[in-house]
Specification:
The structure is a homodimer. With about 170 residues, chain A is mainly α. The first copy, chain A, contains eight helices and two strands. The first copy, chain A, is globular. Chains A and B meet through helix 1, helix 2, helix 3, helix 4 and helix 5 of A and helix 1, helix 2, helix 3, helix 4 and helix 5 of B.
């Protein structure tokens, strides 16, 4: 494991309320074995994903933006005028959850909806002026998150991982 | 994207309640652009992790076991007698959530706790006979999940991905 990631983790663990630290210290003298877990890709995939999302949330805290909100903003930016259903399907976000998420972004004045041509039931989504401005600030923060990630993974391994993951994206 | 994964996804999307399917069909004629999202490793990491966890949960449904429960069972199996705090720290599971999870496994008669030597506050965890038997059936199902994963990713790419992820695991 990369030293920096390890240090970050250690920091996190200190912050988490755990059992009495004396117990933990005594019990930690032996490292735990992973056993069969060591053969499961899903376990390692989840661990890195959680680390990456934690850094994202921490880095984006000044704008109070979560990963799913950010994805939706970027998809609306890249595809103005598309429907809620299309955005939800592209990101695999369940309908009710997407509705809540969009409601939140609308409440902050970042997105708007227009009735789609000739159909009152369907709404096309777009970024407001305020949303565009917010996204500039948000992207400045995500650049910091990506810089952290490149440092932690090493830029070569980051690219390799990206290529492998994109094949299934 | 691998055809099989795509087919599974299509199946899932059909099952999800969405906006009216006519809207969706019309709007889907143009594929959405990913925009800046295409540069974020976290996005692709999350997509594959969600796919893998969905298949895990579906495959393990006969035993009603979720990924976090499975990890805890495997860690107790590999490290009998270790404390709740040590298991929680190794898996990075927050204390209250782990307590609920262990309570559930205890209720199913799969795990037991003993007071650790000379300390009434600390408990060491172990698998019961019933837990060991359940784990045999559970592992038969996870083998199916892993076979699906090797087929979807290709075993060479699965190994490459595993190596990359383990460096940060």
């Amino acid at each position: 494991m990369d030293v920096r990631l390890k240090r970050r983790r250690a920091g996190r663990n200190r912050a988490v309320e755990g059992d009495s630290s004396a117990d933990l210290a005594a019990d930690q003298m032996d490292r735990l074995k992973l056993g069969t877990l060591d053969e499961h890709l899903g376990y390692f995939l989840r661990r890195l994903q959680v680390s990456v999302f934690k850094d994202f949330i921490r880095t984006l805290a000044p704008m109070d933006v979560r990963p799913a909100q950010y994805s939706v903003l970027l998809l609306i930016e890249a595809n103005p005028g598309r429907s809620q259903a299309a955005i939800g399907q592209a990101l695999d976000i369940e309908r009710a959850r997407l509705a809540r998420l969009l409601h939140g972004l609308e409440g902050r004045g970042w997105i708007g909806r227009r009735a789609a041509d000739g159909d009152g039931r369907s709404h096309s989504l777009y970024l407001t002026r305020g949303g565009e401005k917010a996204l500039v600030r948000i992207k400045a923060l995500t650049a910091r998150h990506e810089a952290w990630l490149a440092e932690v993974l090493g830029s070569k391994r980051r690219l390799l991982l990206m290529d492998l993951l994109k094949e299934f994206g």
